[in-house]
Design goal:
nine-stranded antiparallel β-sheet, about 10% helix, mainly beta
């Protein structure tokens, strides 16, 4: 959709040009956050609900539907306009919206100065310990202080000072790779980050023309905007080619929605991996901030970054200056989960990823040069210290009531085979409805932990498994959370605590979708340790309290083929926003015809969309459930 009045509405029969997507919403909506807008100051206001900036990720693209005839490759080269459209359809959208406080209707303010796109070509700064390091040197920025673009933005976060955090997840799939001229150490790093020999996108095959000279591309050799997607040694030094271009992705990116004049910042102190989400701890005056993160791939890890700086509420609306203060200097840790079968106690430890640790400095599989190398190759450093391999750590949520941290572990088909069972990842089974195949952790689970002493600087924690995904009729030892018809689910992915303490859980599933579509649930959780130790396949594991449908209930299901992802609310809790990503067929096939009011405009290409849900009576969403709980 257009977010600029100079650009026409979407029309299936006349797919817009690639450069126009600098002024249109991107594809495959994912994580998002609402930032209240103070009309008087034009700045962030956490209590404002009538106007605000909706900031959302665009994880990837549906090329079959994004182009008039699908993606093409005549004579072995991708057409330039198709690739510009694809690059611009990635990234982040900032959209000004307003809500009528009487009927809660939400509209886009299309002519707002705040509306803008951050794309796969937008200029980005590097800040933090790796900025200026040779590992970031490229032909575009020989001194390693800048790069272009962000892509595969999945989960998200927001800071206490009012900025947006977008995550670069499966960035590897966009690159093609040539190993000629590389040393063995760099090949180990490329392999660990799964950089492929050939990308399916093939953006590097474009032959540039002057059509490339758009508003978003001003300071770069035209051909370089495509050549950078092929990482290879072609010059005398790293500054002469794009051998390091993969190192410029895989970071947490800070965006100030209220300041379009400053370039977004990649925060290198938080490490480089397939970032799925990034959630800040509770902002407590005089205490450090922590940022909790997951690495979304089978057998990857859970991390936290703890700031050296102590929180000061005076930094609200401090923009990138506040980001420099809290996100440039601190300690990065990776998690180990332990369970003592004799005492039935669950504990964990945070291991700092620091070059001074002999396990890292003397690691046999990869030779780390310095601390910057540790942050660029965070996965290898976590391997070196023996962190716990998890079942695809995705979104993170921090309980505003007690500071406990929740992480979705979506699924892992390798659990019980390549990745041995442990108490934090205890299930290996098959879906009985599908003939006993495949096996692994098919339905996923949500783990949570409590920092020792309730301080983010703690080096230890306690934990349990809050919920196990399962179908109601699962085989024995699978439905350990005793889910029922109103709340059974599979493959938890998106997740967010609203400020009242309601936990919203979203699914990205392929196991339960033979019976129902992906969904979102609402939960009223307790706390770590409120359940009991249960056993599955002889392996004990601490589980949270069983929740009936007054504490855990399905809120919605989506169209066929979609993922439900991204959730945020206005501060008055009267409008909730949810993203429908990649619906599998036309909206008309999933909804009554009465909802397709403008088929001539909407067309028949299935598109990702953002929904806003309000109550007929204009009240707070999930309000009664909270009142009932409070009364009891």
């Amino acid at each position: 959709d257009s977010i600029n009045p100079a650009y026409a509405a979407w029309d299936d029969q006349n797919v817009p040009s690639g450069p126009s997507f600098q002024f249109r919403s991107g594809d495959c909506h994912d994580g998002m956050s609402f930032f209240g807008l103070n009309n008087s100051t034009g700045r962030y206001d956490s209590s404002a609900s009538e106007q605000g900036l909706l900031v959302m990720n665009h994880e990837y693209i549906n090329p079959t539907f994004l182009h008039p005839k699908g993606p093409t490759k005549p004579n072995g080269r991708r057409p330039e306009d198709e690739v510009i459209r694809e690059v611009n359809a990635h990234g982040v959208s900032v959209v000004h919206i307003k809500k009528d406080k009487t009927n809660q209707k939400v509209e886009i303010v299309q002519n707002s100065i705040f509306n803008r796109r951050i794309t796969g070509s937008t200029i980005m700064d590097f800040n933090g310990p790796v900025a200026g390091n040779p590992l970031l040197a490229t032909q575009y920025s020989p001194v390693g202080l800048k790069t272009r673009g962000t892509h595969n933005n999945c989960g998200n976060g927001y800071t206490p000072w009012g900025t947006y955090l977008t995550t670069e997840e499966n960035f590897n799939q966009y690159f093609s790779r040539d190993d000629i001229g590389r040393d063995a150490n760099s090949i180990v790093a490329l392999d660990r980050y799964k950089i492929p020999a050939a990308s399916s996108y093939k953006w590097h095959t474009v032959k540039a023309t002057e059509d490339s000279r758009t508003n978003d591309i001003k300071d770069l050799n035209i051909q370089d905007i495509y050549d950078r997607w092929l990482t290879k040694v072609s010059g005398a030094e790293a500054k002469d080619d794009f051998r390091n271009t993969t190192n410029t992705f895989g970071w947490i990116v800070e965006i100030d929605p209220f300041n379009g004049s400053h370039t977004p910042v990649k925060r290198t102190a938080l490490g480089r991996f397939a970032h799925e989400d990034c959630r800040a701890s509770r902002a407590i005056a005089g205490q450090p901030l922590a940022f909790y993160m997951g690495d979304d791939s089978q057998g990857e890890y859970i991390y936290k970054f703890v700031s050296d700086a102590l929180w000061d509420a005076k930094d609200i609306n401090g923009g990138y200056t506040a980001g420099d203060k809290y996100m440039n200097s601190g300690k990065l840790y990776v998690a180990k989960f332990n369970f003592d079968t004799a005492t039935e106690k669950s504990t964990g430890e945070w291991v700092e990823l620091n070059i001074n640790n002999p396990l890292i400095s003397a690691y046999a599989k990869y030779k780390f040069a310095d601390q910057a190398d540790v942050l660029v190759n965070t996965r290898l450093a976590a391997d070196a210290v023996g962190a716990t391999k998890m079942d695809r750590p995705e979104w993170v949520a921090v309980n505003p009531k007690n500071g406990e941290v929740y992480v979705t572990l979506t699924n892992n088909s390798s659990r019980g085979t390549a990745h041995p069972l442990d108490s934090a990842n205890p299930r290996n089974y098959a879906d009985a409805d599908k003939g006993g195949s495949p096996k692994g952790n098919i339905n996923g689970h949500i783990i949570r932990f409590k920092e020792t002493g309730d301080v983010v600087t703690a080096s230890t924690f306690t934990w349990d498994i809050f919920l196990f995904g399962a179908e109601q009729d699962s085989i024995q030892d699978v439905n350990l959370s005793k889910l029922g018809a109103d709340n059974d689910f599979s493959s938890p992915d998106g997740m967010w605590f609203d400020p009242r303490g309601v936990l919203w859980i979203q699914t990205d599933d392929g196991s339960y979708t033979d019976e129902t579509n992906c969904m979102m649930l609402a939960a009223l959780p307790g706390q770590v340790g409120d359940g009991q130790v249960k056993t599955t396949a002889g392996l004990p594991t601490p589980t949270g309290a069983e929740l009936d449908n007054t504490k855990l209930r399905r809120f919605l299901t989506g169209p066929a083929g979609c993922e439900i992802t991204g959730v945020t609310m206005t501060p008055d809790y009267k409008a909730i926003f949810i993203n429908i990503q990649h619906p599998g067929n036309n909206w008309s096939a999933n909804h009554p015809s009465a909802l397709n009011l403008s088929k001539a405009v909407l067309g028949s290409r299935p598109r990702s969309a953002t929904l806003v849900i309000t109550r007929v009576d204009g009240g707070a969403i999930a309000g009664e459930a909270l009142e009932t709980t409070k009364a009891s």
